[in-house]
Each structure stands twice: as C-alpha cells, then as structure tokens.
Design goal:
The chain is α+β, with helices and mostly antiparallel strands and 894 residues long. 17% of the residues lie in helices and 38% in strands.
Amino acid sequence: MHETGLRLATLLESVFPPRIARWIAAPAQRTPLEAALPAIWWRSQVCSLVLRLSSPHRRGDRAGLLYALHLAGVSTARLAVVTGAEESRIGDALLAVRAQLSDHWSDPCPEGREEVASWRDRLADRDAWLALLLHTRTCSACRTALATSREVDAQVLERASTAPVPPAPRQRRHPSIVVLVALALLLVFASWRLPGNRAVGPPGEAAAPSASGPYVWFGSAGPYALAFDLGQRRWLAVTSRLPADAGGFRLLGPDGQLIAAWTPDPPREPRWLDILRWDGTRLARYRWDRQTNRRPLAWLDATTLLIRETPVRHAYEREAEYLERLQRDARVLALDVLQGTETTLLRELVTDAIPSPDGRSVAVVRAMEPFGAGATSRQIAIVERSGTRVLAVTDGYVGAGLDHPLWLPDSSALLFARRPPGTPPQLPTPTELVRFTVEGKTAIVVPSSPGTVLRPLALDEQRLFYLALPAGHAEPGELWELDLATSVRRRLGQLDRLNGFLTILPQPDSPLLVAVRTLPASPPLRPESEVTELYRIGEDAPELIAAVPGRWGFDAWGQPLAVATTTAPSAAASPLVPPTGPLGAGPLALAPGRNWLLAPVPDGRVAIWDATSGIQLTEPWPFRKPHWHPAGLAFVALGELGELQLVARSPDGFWQAVPLALDAPRGDTLDLTVGPDGRLALLTRTDGGELALWAGFPPQALELARWRGPELVGTPCMAWLRTGTLLVAAPLVGGQLLLTSITIEERGRVAVRTMARLRTDRGPAVETCTLALEPSGGAVALRAGSRERERIVLLWLAEPDSPLILAEGRASRGLAWSPDGALLAAPLDGALVVHGRNGREVLNQRAAGLADLVWVDTRELWVLERSEAGSAIHRVAIIDLSEAPTRAARPSAG
C-alpha cells in the first residue's frame, strides 16, 4: 500500500505541487486505494479550490486528476461512483489527456470510444478485452487510438516509476489544512500586489477565446507548414518543421497522420523515402539500390504504401529491348512503412494506383502504349487487394495533368474523366465523367461538351464536385456541384488565374476548397507571384475566407498536402539570438512563429535575419512600413515610390520581392496592415486629396471609408480588431479623435460603428497616431499627438469612453504589447516606458537613440538603440522584465 501511495503521489505531481500531491495521496499509504478513494477525492477538491483562490487565472486540471487516479489503478466505474460524473464523461477526459500528451493522436470512432478510453479496465476481463481487439481489427481509428493510448500510458508510468523517491514526511496525526489555507491567503495578498498579475479593466470584461478549431493543416514541398483556425478564421504559425533533407515529393496518409516524402533521382525516380509525422519526427528511412527505380503511388492503408518498381535502362540497351524488359520486370509493391516488410502485389507496368476506401480493392492505371500517341489513352483495372484477381477493366481514361480517379465512399464504383468513345487519341481532348462499378458497368455522369475538359475534385455520399476547364488551358475554371441521387447540377462559380493546383476537403457542413492562383504583378511584365486561397462552399457561391502568399497545401508534384483536423499545431519555441553586425535606424519586426526577424541595415534598408542564429539571410530592400503575414512566411511593405511590395519565402528557401497590384484606384499609399485571415488593409491619398481606406484579399480591394481633406487634421491609424473588423482612429478638426470599428459583412456590405470620441484639446494636437491591440482583444493602446509631443493612452474596448493616460513626452516610434497582453512597451521622451495592463508603470529606463522595439517573449524585450560610441550604428539590447519594480499609474485626464 505504501508503494501505491508513492506512485499515486508521483502521478499527481503533474496536477498539483509536490507537497500537496503527497498530502492528497497519503490515505493510499494506509488503506487500499479503492477504499481510500473518497478521502483522496475530497482532499484533491479542497486543494484545487485553495489553489484557484490563490491565483484567479488558475484552472483546476480535473481531467489530469482523473487520468492520474486511473493510472494508479482506479477503474472508470469506481471514479464515476465517487465523483458523481457519468462514465462516458470520465472516458472523454482520459482521451483528452492522452491527446495532449501525444504528438500523433487520432480520435477513436464513436462506437469504440468508451472501450478505448477504459482499455486498462478491460485487461482484467478476458471477454471484454477480446471484444475490444476484435473491434480494432475492423476499425483503423480505434486501432490507432488504442496503440497510442497504450504508448502514452506506458511512458507516463515509466516516468513515475523512475522518479526520485521523495523524503518521508514527518508523522502527523492530524494534517493541518488550516496552514494550507493561511498560506493560500498570503499568496492571494502577495499576488494582488505584484505588477501585471491583475487584469484591471471595466466590469464584465473577458479575455478573447484562444484557438478554437477545427484547423486546416497546409503542407508544402519544403520544411515549413501552415495552419488555419476555422473557428476564429485566423492563420496560425506552425513552429515544427520537417527535416531539411526530406524530399519535396510527398503523399499524405489516409488518416492524415503520416507523410511519405521522397527525392526523385534523375530524371524522375526517387533516391530515398522518408516516413514522417507532422512535427518532423522521422519514423523510418528507406534507400533504394541503383538497379531499380521506385516511386510511391498511394497509401493502401494507414501504414502501407504502394510503390511502383521499374528496372533501370542500361546504356547499351535499345529502346525495344528496354520496353520488353520494362513490361516484364515492373511490379507494384506493398511496403509496411513501420516494419519495413514488402510484398509483391502486381507484376505489371502501371502509372497510378488508387486504393478503395474499404481497402479491399485497388484501381490501377495502365498505359495502353508506354510511348507514342497511344500513351494519351490509358486503361483502368480494378483488382483485389491481394492482386490475384482482376474484377473489371475499362479504357479511355486520359489522366492528364493532376487528374485522378475517385472512389465512391462505399467502394462500389470508381468515377473518372475519360475520352468519349470515337474521339481521336490526342491531347487536348474534351472529356466526360463516368461511373465505373466493380462489376464492370459504365454509366455517364456528366456528358462531354465541345472544347471542355472535366476534372473531378472530390465526392461524398451525396455530391460530386468537379471543375470544367477550356481544353488546353488551366483557367478560367467553372466549379460545379452534382447531386449523385438526382443528377442535378449546380454551378458554384468561376475561378480565374488558376495554375492547376486545386483540391477540396470534405466537411460535414460546408466543404473547403483550396486553390493556388497567381497574383497580377505591377507592372504587368514583372514576374507573377502565387497565393493560396481557402474557400468555404455553401449554398451560394464559394466564400473566400483566407489567403496566404505562396503555394501551400501541395507538394512539388502537385499532390494535395492539406487536411482538416481537430488537433492544434504545436507551439514549440527555440531560443532567439539578436542579429549580428551593424544595424541602422528603422523598423524591427519579429515574424509570427519566431523564425525570422526584420531589421534595418546601416543605410536604412531592411533585411531578414534568422532569429535563431542571428545570421542575415537576404540582401536589403529599400522598403518601409513592413507588416508580417500572420502565418509568418511573407510580409507586405511599401517601396521607395509608395508601391506595394510582397516578399514571400519559396519552398526552396528564397525570399523574393514582387510588386503587388490591387484593384483599388491609384494613389499614394500612406499605411497598411495585414489581418488575421490574410486580408490586406490600405490607407491611400487620392489624386483629389481625399483619404480612402481599402481592404480585401489581393488583388480585390473594397472601399471601407473616405475622408475629405478639411475633415481631418492628421493621418488616421488602424489595426485589425478581429477577422473582418478594423479599428480606426481618425484625428478630427476641433481636437477630437474619432474611434470607429468597420466590419466587412457578407456580400461586401460594410458596417461602421462609432465607439468613442476622445478629446485631446488639453494635450498636443493630434497629427499622427498608432494603434496596438492587446492580444486577447479586450484593450487597445493608442499613441497620438504631434510630431514633437505625444500621449500614450490605454482604452478598454468594453468602455472606450473612459481612457487612461499612461504617459506623455517627446514623440518617438514603437508601441507593442507582450505576447500574453500583460505589459505594454513604448519609447517616449528618450526613455523606454513599460506599463502593465492595469495601467501601472513597470519600467522607466533611459535609452538614448531608441529606434524601435519588439517583444520576443512574455517578459523579454529587444530594443534597437544607438551604440554607446554615439555613431549611427545601432544594436539590439535585451531587457529582462521578469522582476521589474512597479509604481502607481497616473489617472485619466479625460
């Protein structure tokens, strides 16, 4: 019993501090765990309450507590009796904890969810355990979840068993909970006095919710990936990356967990094959010999890869001889990527393989003639998974470009685009969509039209989505939806500037469309850039909900590399290193994801540094007002002549600047900012002297507001309040600063709401301003004033009419919140001033020649200041605010 209590205490240390964990587990050292469970549960609830009172932001980890008790040997049924919770809720809590502890978690199916969650209880019941194993034989989701659960539980128990034994506590007949409560009250009082610990704001103010999900994960041909939060409609920087030496040709597993990456050997075949996870973990690597060429074709199941193997052509071999040997020696292999075992599935030459959803059969594509004009017509054969029997064969499949056949979800038939019978074997050719069953029956689903190529994209139980393109061209394309039951077609819309990369992610409510398009350049003769757009397909036309520069969601071959998931991207962070070498005065901006830093060189131009090594990566550009895209792999800036410049990282690591042309009328661009969903907002001055505010996904731009010259005494400033909503501060004539929110609604409608009118007649005249939104969205900092003198004002958005003036002094540059929103930093009056979110001054440090600042951690700040020698060379200084003193804030002056 003593050993059980020590193990439980060690497991509880993941939820409570060590001393409290040992006190909670103490009853298990005197009595059996089942009998001691009510006392343990009561002690845990008391300690959870005390800890919550000592820290208002602390939330008790109830799921972690249940998981620790379950690992210690308490069954889910016993936990339900003691806690009063439903057994299904306890199972959900156990699965949630395992999902947090695993980097490759996959949810079980609804039928086997409770069984997988309580698998440890079923080990004692032979019949229940066999029933669970039988279920996992036919359910890949539960099989993966069970294996991951066993792996996670074993790792946690191993760490608990190897943890050092704590010193024996002093024997007490009555443990004094009064002492714990007294200490908790002291902690509450002490934390109340610490700076930045209290979020003092208007009544009822609540922090914005964190990442909600579900998410869309976008891979690429390079080491980096992106993620988009569908719940909050914002891009997330993915900090994990794939190995740099992994090939750019990639296949995503059917469950979205594994990635097969390979490097083609000249001319097209692979040199090695890597099996990877999302987080970059390499599970296996396979190297091929030089006697054969191998190329992965498709995933047969979650851990089996279909590979085509062909012989290498010898230098002395004639074409006819090689063709004969190619037909004779080519084969299709099934490789178990985790075990390394391979079996021969077929002995014939194929160009593609498409496994059925149920895994019982495979559709293989054969070239009717490997070379010459006949190669434009292909044959599809449906064979059993074992490869021993051919079920059906059909001709006429074209397979041009990125076209692939699709299986119906019930695996009863295959849908693909074919050349209509009697059409000459040449490309380009019009195509028709047909359904081909495993019994060999063919039916036309969408008939052909002259000069039109049909490309199936995705289908589910009710609908088929396909693209209609003009023959011989990649755009414009018409997106169609076909009801499989009624054969009714519906035109969803038209997409221009396509480059062939297109895929649809099925969703229960509204499918998602991922399309890579080209952006028009300015001037038109300059090279074009690509942009990846995410659409939601609803009842009306597809709705564009996000955009990111570059090609994402596809590999170098054009295979889809995007998946919808409920797992949030990892948030691992590497230590940062300030840029090396001389710097100049200018903007300092850290990319989301903390991989790259924008900093000025001595002549004032900006360049990109590797934030983890401090090495300069690019040549400098003569840009100003740079703003990073929220995904962290591109930024937008203004050029020397005020033109828009887009700089994005390509998969091979090059940063290229391309002029960006928008649909907005021409004018001088004064300011810009990038929204959480990738939308761009611009403030321009028209030829007539008016100021106009535009926003949209490039190249579209929608006019949101317009001011005539006499209305303003300065230039408005703006910041994205949330996705689709801009916060704008406009300095009006008469000493008022008008604060408005502008929301872009459906169908291009614009809603403008006045939030506050701030009077500035007691301070300096407002000619310039800067807005900085607190990360949770509950407050905004405003820097406003003349070119000589400014004020820093804090406003809570729940009560914007009650501003708090933080400081006033000589004008400078820079205003930034810490990542957790607890501190606000700004240069002012020749000093670095830092305030807490409650308005209290945390730091006031003299810093001559301060050019800009950036937060690199919740309590670490980098400032760009002139060197001690007094020359024009600047350096980055690191300021640690983890133990900064505090002083009272100055009250608002209205």
